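Final report, results section. Input specification for complex C-07:
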Amino acid sequence: MSLVEWLGLLMVLFGLPFFFLGTVGLLRFPDVYTRLHALAKGDNVGLGLVCLGLGLQSGSLAMTLKLLLIWILMLIASATGVGLIARTALSRGVRPWGL
Amino acid sequence: MTFYLLLATALFLMALYGVFASRHLLRRILALNVMSTAVFLWLVTVARAAPGLDPVPHAMVLTGIVVTVSTTAVAVVLVVRLRASHRRHDLP
Amino acid sequence: MDALVPLFDALLGALLLWLAWQSIFAADLFRAVVSFMIFGLLMALAWVRLEAPDIALAEAAIGAGVTGALLLSALGRLPRERYAEAAQHILSHSYWLLFWAPVVLLAWFLWSLEAAPPSPPGLGEMVAIHQPAAGVDNPVTAVLLAFRALDTLLEIGVLLLGSLAIWSLGPSPWSTGPAMPSPALPAMARALFPAFVLVSVYLLWRGSHAPGGAFPAGAVMGAGGVLMLLAGARPWLTGGEQGPWRWLLTLGLGTMLVVASVTQFAGYVFFQYPSDWSGRLITLLELAAGLSIALLLFALYLGGQPPVRWRDRGWQ
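Structure output:
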């Protein structure tokens, strides 16, 4: 394997803990807002690293750009979705934890 | 291949039980959808036994997915209307 | 690396079974519907594993997208039942026979498959031999729009019939929609809608030589329309008798019927294309069918006849 492929593998492996920690946050945090916070942040960084790593491993520029496009679309969708869930929860009177 | 056949069989039986045993009509619709997916899985998996890729089952499943969504839409709208007019979500 | 493939299959199978169980037997209906949507997404992955990318595209856009939006909207219209009542599962004795008959049949089927696995070549070879005559490179498109075009015609007929049935049930129950809690959704929908159009045009163009075609393209476009509607857009699809809507909804069916009849009058069999024209005719049919499928899926989602004039609703 070339250096670039090793770098790709390293990035994928580096991205996995973010998914894991995001999921732990989703399961263990006390209320909907903190859960959303953990999930959105952790998963987006994890997905970015995995996409970048896979792009490096694929060795083609077009594939890397496609994977990055997937990541950007995912960022937009997750930001909107998280905002919608949080605002809906707030307007339904779900109190943030500790307030 | 056997693995996916067994998976499809398990999904089908689960959904069949769900269709018969659920009271809520929306649950029955969900179970019917799972059941049709199981049948599609059967079709494509069995077709893979032949050498080469057989596109005919693929086309049939594509057709089936679109037909499933039309029947689901009609059924869901009927459930909503039933609830609005008769205040119930199951069949007598 | 190959040792990981059965592991992946096993993991996928276990997840699919668990999600199907949740979507049928979960106490909370909302949980059931969301489980079903994730089930559709993972099924798309399973279709990729089974080397059926066309089905994967359609399943992701229709199974998880349009069906999920439809079920969620319906759930919003149904009052929340008490859990115990909603999750009631009773199987009366007379149903047990109905349940066990397919079980026995399936067991026998599996056993006979194990005893004598199917060895015939299937229809793959036939399609491969005749495909040059169809004028397209993608075998699935060739089957859908050349060899078994009658199936596709009837299927678009079913879609049209479905939306006809829904329109005849009265006005759309969710034409007013929920109050928008955030300005982010309309902004995102406006930003992403061109991407939906681009992807579906690309899929349509790609369909002649690679996985794609009218069905995935129409599904992506229909899902984009549903997203715009959820984001508070006022669609120009109205229930008025004037206007292009009824024509556009029947465009796919109409074009297919016209092509089939014209070729029949020109001395060919019903739906037999002159071989020089085959590729171009299939492109025309795909274009018409894709547009019609997108609009029909949108009409199915509406759940009733759209109003003659859409009311304004921005975010609050």
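The two ends of chain C are 53 Å apart (CA to CA). Chain C touches chain A through eight residues (CB under 8 Å). This concludes the modelling results for the funded period.
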